[in-house]
Amino acid sequence: MPFDFDEIIDRRGTAALKWDKYAGRDVIPMWVADMDFRSPPAVVEAVRQRVEHGVFGYTDAPAELNAVIVAHLQQAYGWRIKAEWLMWLPGLVTGINLVCSAIGEEGDDVVTATPVYHPFLTGPVNQRRGVVRVPMHLEGNRWLWDFERLEASITPRSKLLLLCNPHNPVGRVFSKEELGELARVAAKHDLVICSDEIHCGLILDTDKSHIPFAALGDDVSARTITLMAASKTFNLPGLGCAFAVVSDPTLRKRLERAAAGIVPRVTAPGFVATLAAYRDGEPWRVALVDYLRGNRNLVMDRIHAMAGLSMAPLEATYLAWINVQATQLREPAKFFEQAGVGLYDGKVFDGEGYVRLNFACPRSLLVKALDRIAEAIVRRITP
Ligand SMILES: Cc1ncc(COP(=O)(O)O)c(C=O)c1O
Fold this sequence. Notes:
The protein is 40% helix and 16% strand. The protein contains 14 helices and 14 strands. Helix 5 links the parallel strand 3 and strand 4.
């Protein structure tokens, strides 16, 4: 079935976070990570039917949903889980904060690799933990964990390791060897791992596939809390539905205790959309990834042709991590905003000298934004 990702959908007037930031200004918003595409027709129809029912009382996960998730994880990744390992959450950021509060004590350390999605840095602080930042490094144009530095950074107060798999913002799909090395370090230092896998449906390289961290083995699973959602892949973040997969009953209890009375239930539309997405959305997802791959290739080609801009190959996500250090721009996001493109400054992710560009939009809009970036760069070097 054909899906039209070229359609321009006007999101103004829908209180869209991404677009309202620049309301009344000619700035193309490419900052926060949602897509300018309509969700799959099957999802829209399922939510429409539920809305037409018109009664919106307290709602549990539909009986079919847990079974659909179990089947999906088995089919997509060969990962066998049990329905009782699932814990429903209104979002992953809630999940990250919940995990930080449930593991260890106040004053303990949470370890992560930087640059990284900013709630990995703010979540521990919100929950009165310290953050140990282990910088990733570029080797042959590939972003890698620094395992030596990781081990050297771990203190007796380190209890939790936050992993972004696939990685936002560097776009890596970690290999079995890399994940295995992290598992070895975690076991040696008795760390719990929280693996945020929200981008796992968005692998762009056809020769790579997502490996759930917990699928490495039963011993790894026993110390892992996996966070997932249909929201990133199927563009549902405004509906607030996510889940944790936790095989260890003690860890699960700790999370449930930390959530009690604080974390709200998922809403009825959130559950319904998630069910329809995993059950009926696969043809749409395949078409989406194909379209995003085309956008990714365009971004790579255009960025490489611009003086002072570069980026490492992006294996997954729709978020380009662009190195602007050679431009010596002190405030690159402000510079590009003045040129009519709204990007995230890398500083937000502990990545100074970078900007993050969200290319999940119709290609014509992306071309317009890339033209504006290119013109701004040319104007800067030829005053
Ligand atoms: C790695 C990562 N985790 C979590 C989220 C947000 O999750 P939620 O909207 O469910 O809180 C994002 C959004 O960009 C993300 O990139």
